[in-house]
Amino acid sequence: MLLETLNAMFRAAVLHSGKGGPGGGGAVLTDAGRAALTGYRRAEAASAKATEPHFQTLKSMVGDILRKK
């Protein structure tokens, strides 16, 4: 059901799945799936880079629970 939902979300199929059996089934990324995953990872990296200074500021404001602040 998850694979079908993912494929329905995109204009092109992002995964192809095989039927289970003695050798087992499986799922394989399509070219569209690889492109979507690459785009996601690039957005994730850009987001982490953009927010890092803000998280460093927050971290500096948090007490150390082991030292009781």
Q: Which features would summarize this protein structure in a list?
A:
69 residues, mainly alpha, elongated
Strand content: 5-15%
Largest sheet, spatial ordering of strands: 1-2
What is the 3D shape?
elongated
Number of strands: 2
Describe the sheet with the most strands: 2 strands, antiparallel
Structure class: mainly alpha
Q: H/E element string? A: HEEH
- What is the averaged pLDDT score? 89
N-to-C span:
47 Å
Summarize the amount of helix as a percent range: 55-70%
C-alpha Rg, in Å?
Answer: 20 Å
| DSSP summary: helix tally | 2
Spans of 5+ residues with little confidence (pLDDT < 50)? none
Into how many domains do the coordinates divide? 1
Report on this structure.
With 69 residues, the protein is mainly α. The chain has one domain. Helix content is 57%, strand content 12%. The chain has 2 helices and 2 strands, in the order αββα. The longest helix has 31 residues. The N and C termini lie far apart (47 Å). 1% of the residues are buried.
Topology at a glance:
Blueprint: H1 2-9, E1 15-18, E2 26-29, H2 31-61
Antiparallel strand pairs: 1-2
Write a compact overview of the structure shown:
The chain is mainly α and 69 residues long. Helices cover 57% and strands 12% of the residues. The chain has helices at residues 2-9, 31-61; strands spanning 15-18, 26-29.
